[in-house]
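Lab notes, practical 5.
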Amino acid sequence: AAVDAAYALHDESYAPPADRLAAMQAARAEAEAVIASAASLAGQSKDSAVEARLQYLRGKAATCGPDGRGSAEAEQLLAVAVKLDPSLDGAWNAIGECYWQRGDLEAARGCFLGALAHRRSAASLCHLSMLLRLIARRSAPDEARAGVLESLSLS
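Output from the prediction step:
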């Protein structure tokens, strides 16, 4: 919940940029404290699903810094989470947002499709649909039409 609250500040805060960043970093610190507590409770567990979830939460929290969702640190943590547990669709979506923020639209598309391969969720469908429409706007007319039709077929 602490990580989700910090992550939501990306979209929900309309404060001036400096105040918004300060709020995000404070929320990140709180989220990281909760993650550290959870990691200590998990102990030296060799359960890859638990470690994947912790890496996912760390990666999601790492987006609450100056680089936002384009954070290289977040991308690395989320990549580890996906490798440890490929069925973690939230990690696929979060890393897809990192790629999208950094302008790598095809990598983002692959991540959202990866999430959908494991679980059909509204978040994954929404991200992929928005991304496909963005790619379509930047494409030649014939390719744009195909992208819009693919986006519409996701419903």
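Observations recorded by the TA: The mean pLDDT is 86. The helical segments are 2-12, 17-42, 48-62, 72-84, 89-101, 105-118, 122-137, 141-152.
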